[in-house]
Specification:
With about 450 residues, the protein is of the alpha/beta class. It is built from eleven helices and 20 strands. The protein folds into two domains: about 260 residues, Alanine racemase (TIM Barrel); about 150 residues, Beta Barrel (Lyase, Ornithine Decarboxylase, Chain A, domain 1). Strands 3, 12, 13, 14, 15, 16, 17, 18, 19 and 20 form a ten-stranded mixed β-sheet that branches. An eight-stranded parallel β-sheet has the order 4-11-10-9-8-7-6-5.
């Protein structure tokens, strides 16, 4: 098939094609899944279909839900979806959002409606979720190994509803292992593969031009089972923009090596991550276009965050200021909790802990507090306060002298690293700017 080349003018056409795909998503499982008090965050008397949530008139600030609770702000979601879609169109980039971030088919549907070319995942279990909900093009940004995994992949590639699947390879042995498994388990459709380009000390991927050549040659020896689509890299392993720039030189050399061996009528594809160093991804893309089709796999853009990715994205914007335009993202995830204890003058305990919040990069960031019955306009800033430690169900909140908190007050926190936020929650309410519940989004980790 011919790859779609995006321009600003072609965005409406591309969105129409993407919407035709998204309309095929099967949301019956979600729409007919009644939710009740067995779902964390829902009250004792809750019994609702996601489609009925808005009609219930629930409001987080009125005590209609139990806390702690992670919520999604609809205004931020809508902004981020449109911003990334428009930016990719303007820069002739294909987007395959990394679905492992959210594992939320309702968000996949919206991402595809905004022009996503595919959904990216990290393993077979996640790919099966995408397939179950009707995603027709899946990128597994990882190597697939082991009989159980390859058997499921082969079954997925068989039958009338088989999706188009692409995964990664980075060794001759890995290619042989994958091909043998696909043949053993009767895959009825070829599997697309990217050769992953790595770097010493980083994650997976070939480490030299010689290895790249050997892996490409081995793929061609299994053409009935495997189809070479291009090369891939995860630049997010870099510790700095300078390190990513250094890696980019070798990556672009690998792309030219791929081109010399290219015999397909399809344009060769280059796939890059694109969350932490989105500006460097754009610079790489500009040097490789139009010969190569560029596929970006950013996952965190859809919700952004209040800490790590907000900092990294602001740095990306500054690095290319005056050179290139970057999309602006708004944090969409908030973690709400109650104050449950004030045992010391400058210490409060909140009702969330490690089971509720991401803590692998940074601890949650206190934003503001409300007392029961307060209007949002009366929110009290918590600037200077910080969460210093988490237990399973307790957050240690260190306060300044002028912070006034009482038992039962609501505290809103931002988070760092969306990828380890969604996995704590089976259901996340989508709320408007007044915290009225609009929908209930489900995750499948």
């Amino acid at each position: 098939m011919a790859w779609i080349r995006l321009t600003s003018a072609s965005l409406p056409v591309f969105k129409m094609q993407a919407e035709q795909i998204s309309n095929c998503l099967t949301m019956n499982t979600i729409q007919h899944d009644r939710l009740n008090a067995l779902t964390k965050g829902l009250a004792f008397d809750a019994d609702v279909l996601p489609s009925e949530a808005k009609a219930r008139g629930w409001n987080l600030l009125n005590g209609d839900l139990t806390l702690p609770l992670m919520v999604l702000k609809e205004s931020a979601l809508a902004h981020n979806l449109q911003a990334m879609s428009q930016w990719c169109a303007e820069n002739n980039l294909l987007l395959a959002p990394h679905g492992k971030t959210t594992m939320c088919p309702q968000l996949y549907e919206r991402q595809m409606a905004h022009g996503a070319w595919a959904i990216t995942v990290a393993n077979i279990a996640q790919a099966q979720v995408c397939h179950h909900f009707g995603v027709s093009r899946i990128v597994i940004a990882n190597q697939v190994a082991g009989a159980g995994n390859i058997r499921s992949l082969a079954k997925m590639l068989s039958g009338a509803a088989a999706p188009e699947v692409t995964c990664l390879v980075d060794s001759v042995e890995g290619v042989q292992h994958l091909a043998a498994g696909l043949q053993q388990f009767g895959a009825q459709r070829p599997l697309n593969v990217f050769v992953e380009i790595g770097r010493t000390g980083w994650r997976t991927g070939v480490r030299s031009a010689e290895q790249l050549q050997e892996v490409m040659a081995e793929i061609h020896r299994h053409e009935s089972l495997l189809k070479l689509r291009g090369i891939e890299a995860f630049e997010g392993s870099g510790a700095s923009a300078a390190e990513v720039d250094d890696f980019a030189v070798a990556f672009k050399t690998s792309a030219q090596q791929l081109l010399k061996q290219w015999t397909s009528n399809d344009a060769p594809m280059v796939s890059i991550g694109g969350t932490a160093f989105l500006d460097r991804v754009l610079m790489i893309a500009r040097e490789l276009q139009p010969t190569f089709q560029i596929l970006v796999r950013s996952g965190c853009y859809v919700t952004h965050d209040h800490a790590r990715y907000q900092l990294q994205h602001s740095q990306s914007i500054e690095r290319v200021r005056g050179i290139a335009a970057m999309p602006a993202f708004i944090p969409a995830l908030e973690l709400w909790a109650y104050v449950q204890s004030r045992p010391e003058p400058n210490l409060a305990f909140l009702t969330f802990g490690k089971r509720d919040a991401p803590f692998d990069l940074d601890l949650p960031l206190p934003l503001f507090a409300l007392s029961a019955g307060d209007a949002l306009s009366e929110a009290r800033s918590l600037t200077g306060a910080r969460v210093t430690k988490l237990n399973d169900q307790h957050a240690y909140l260190q306060l300044q002298d002028d912070h006034d908190l009482h038992i039962g007050d609501l505290v809103c926190c931002g988070i760092s690293h969306p990828c380890t936020a969604f996995d704590k929650w089976r259901v996340l309410p989508v709320v408007d700017d007044d915290y009225n519940v609009l929908d209930l989004y489900q995750t499948y980790f």
